[in-house]
Amino acid sequence: MIRVEALNLSVGSFALRDICLHVRRGEYFVLLGPTGSGKTLLLECLCGLNRVDSGRIWIGGQDVTRWEPRRRGVGYLPQDYALFPQKTVRQNVAFGLYRHQHGRAGADVESQTAGLMEQLGLSHLADRLPERLSGGEKQRVALARALAVQPRVLLLDEPVAAVDEAMRDSLCRLLRHLQQQTGTTAVHVCHNFAEMMAVADRAAVIDQGRILQVGTPREILQRPRNRRVAQFVQAGNLLPVRARIDGTRVHLECADGVALCASGPLPGDNCRVLAVVRPENVRLAAARPQETPRAGVLLEGTIREVVDQGFSVKAYVACGAQTELAAQLGRHEAIEMELGAGRRVWVTVRPEDVHLIADEAAPGTPLRG
User: Fold this and answer.
1) What local confidence, expressed as pLDDT, does residue 166 receive?
2) Is pLDDT of 348 > 70?
């Protein structure tokens, strides 16, 4: 549905560089990245607010690179919602319909407006001005206005950034429900990977004007392509290791001799290697297991710190002189184990939970054995 090829755009000292992207028809796609990464700039290129320096943009098989925004068939929800302050909720929602009615009777516009307001829970707010709306209500009005023209593509710029956490969850469910109901292709910009998980079919991680990785939310969280993606999605444990291949297994050794095992593959030839292990994949036991986990690695360690995160607990375990592993546990599990600083524990890491990436940031000779 959306295809971007070799897009480049410079704005002052910042630039989008060689952006290539494909969003499938009917897909809910998320652009994920830190503040200032170029997410909004790319979204504005898609809707036609920015004229690109080079490259091509296709929507629905048509080259829209030089088209004005109104010709592209997109609905756009900006960060600030851009509601008309002097118009009521009803008038804001109907605005696009009146501009695109193409001979339709006013009664048809009013009927469609009423239907959208009812669908998004806005009927009781129809005569209010934007200044009397909450952040979540403004977001739903802006969304209704964007959907009113039945766009081919819906572009959402940080649509839930201005609301609290509870409202954010509710609005994400609403966005996903509406997108599935209408079949509209959606591109949603955010910087929160929990938000990405709530709505996305697939996502792209963007940083410093470049696309770093495209994949499903689970692929990005569990299999980050490089150090920058791993750090952004809070992969947790990033361990420089020496790697040695033994049949179908990759044996790993940290600088202090702590050993791990991965199911592979190695990220490339003659490169330094980072082992990525998410904290929720590190298992702790208060007593040594009677049997060594099948194909896994069993380590003994000492808890250095326990951080209460509300619904879960994160424990930092020293497994060697230099190697520390973070483990994420459920609150009840942590209480039963009586976790605390200084407690000796047993640590299990399965090979399939160890992901290997090239350590581009590390200088020196390759860590390959």
Assistant:
1) 80
2) yes
Output the pTM of the full model: 0.88
pLDDT digits (tens, 9 = 90+) for 93-105: 998 787 666 555 5
- Per-residue model confidence as pLDDT tens digits over 143-187: 899 888 889 999 999 988 877 888 888 889 989 998 999 899 999
pLDDT given for residue 293 in this prediction: 62
Domains and CATH numbers, the chain: 2-227 (3.40.50.300), 235-358 (2.40.50.100)
SS3 sequence, the chain? CEEEEEEEEEECCEEEEEEEEEECCCCEEEEECCCCCCHHHHHHHHHCCCCCCEEEEEECCEECCCCCHHHCCEEEECCCCCCCCCCCHHHHHHHHHHHCCCCCCHHHHHHHHHHHHHHCCCHHHCCCCHHHCCHHHHHHHHHHHHHHCCCCEEEEECCCCCCCHHHHHHHHHHHHHHHHHHCCEEEEEECCHHHHHHHCCEEEEEECCEEEEEECHHHHHHCCCCHHHHHHCCCCEEEEEEEEEECCEEEEECCCCCEEEECCCCCCCCCCEEEEECHHHCEEECCCCCCCCCCCEEEEEEEEEEEECCCEEEEEEECCCCCEEEEEEEHHHHHHHCCCCCCEEEEEECHHHCEEEECCCCCCCCCEC
CB atoms within 10 A of CB 169: 15
